[in-house]
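Milestone M4 deliverable, item 7.
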Amino acid sequence: MINRWIENDHTIDACGELGIGVIAFSPLAQGVLSGKYNSGRTEGTRGENPNGSLRASHIEPRVLAAVDKVGEIARSRGQSMVQLALSWVLRRKEMTSALIGVRTLEQLKDNLGVLNNLDLSDEEIAAIDAATAEGQMELHPRPQGWLR
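Output delivered:
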């Protein structure tokens, strides 16, 4: 939702045309889309380790502002932010699965709650697009300068 390289470079479209399934890696953007970093606290999270998987660019104010807006959309749908993020990922026919990483039973239940409301309307997709427009992260896995 806030890292759309797979859509922007049409990788997901090519996979669909070729009949290749896609598995989403880090659909919650290292936990950013759970909203837990919006408080500014990183204790006990990936953000606690400056050399870990959470980059400083993941929690820039513009990204966290987008996450706040996504939270409003999730609440209007009766979902958690996690559930909305998973709905977003799983809305594409090319997406066969999403890798989730949970540490607690509560997190697992929250993740599985997405099954109660997977569908996104065109209006909701447009609202998500607008909410995240200024908060996109550039996390393409290719090396810099590769096939530009």
